[in-house]
Specification:
The protein has about 70 residues and is mostly helical. It has a domain of about 45 residues. The radius of gyration is 14 Å and the shape is globular.
Length: about 70
């Protein structure tokens, strides 16, 4: 028998384990971070982040804003 949740849930990999995690933040990540930061009342410098750092900050701000 197959677990339905295991099939429908995407595999999550820790951003620190991403092969491309040390590459510079992407444009879409910067845009989303700016939006979330504004909603959270925070300032976030996005230009110096890596993809992995940006992803972690996005998750942090999503939790803070309830998104």
């Amino acid at each position: 028998m197959v677990d339905a949740d295991a099939v429908t849930q995407p595999a999550e990999k820790d951003p620190s384990e991403w092969v491309t995690g040390d590459e510079p933040v992407t444009g879409p990540q910067q845009s989303y971070l700016s939006t979330l930061a504004q909603q959270a009342g925070e300032e976030v410098e996005t230009t110096e982040l890596t993809k992995a750092e940006a992803s972690q900050k996005i998750e942090e701000l999503k939790d803070k804003t309830g998104r």
